[in-house]
Amino acid sequence: MSGQDSEDFGAENLSDKSQMIPSLPPYDMDDQLLPREPRSAWCCLAWTLVVGTMNFLVFFMNLLLMFVIFTIVLLPTIVVVYFGFQCHSRVLHSAARYCRSILDDNSSSALIILGFVIMSPLIVVAMAIYCSLARRLRLFMCFQPYSRAVYKGVKWRWYEEGGLCSCAKGWNTQVKAWV
């Protein structure tokens, strides 16, 4: 580098190698990967049960949320296919009044086909809604690593991020993602 360039950076007396690194990264003892103290066998087993139970509950909550969203979004498909199968003479052939007066075998077949055709786009919509909600609520940040059970002093991930599952932290509106 020339003398003019080094004056611009304020590094007149530094060597060429030190000019490549403008400043050192921040040094924080909490974020270091120092050898941690392992827990005893019984303590590790107890913490493994706690972390495993917590991760199972988070998984169950995610599964329940996904089930609710998919049920609500796919409700039109469920209703159309149900009535199609209920009124078709070769499937259930219900004796309901609407099956005898409105829906014959051709219209029941049309309902079944329509239900399965509109299912694909509705599954995509339901998955987009679930992914958007999971990203916004940061649900996958609630899972805890197994190292929390093995070593002492590992912080809870949700505690570091600003609350349970980072929900208390302000949402970053600058980040956009297409689902």
TrEMBL record:
GO terms for cellular component: plasma membrane. The chain crosses the membrane at residues 39-58, 63-85, 110-131. The keyword Membrane applies. This is Transmembrane protein 88B. The lineage of its organism: Eukaryota, Metazoa, Chordata, Craniata, Vertebrata. Belongs to the TMEM88 family. Keywords: Membrane, Transmembrane, Transmembrane helix. It comes from Bubo bubo. The keyword Membrane applies. It comes from the Eukaryota. It is a multi-pass membrane protein. GO terms for molecular function: PDZ domain binding. Residues 1-10 have a biased composition (Acidic residues). Residues 1-21 are annotated as: Disordered. It is found in: Membrane. Its main location: membrane.
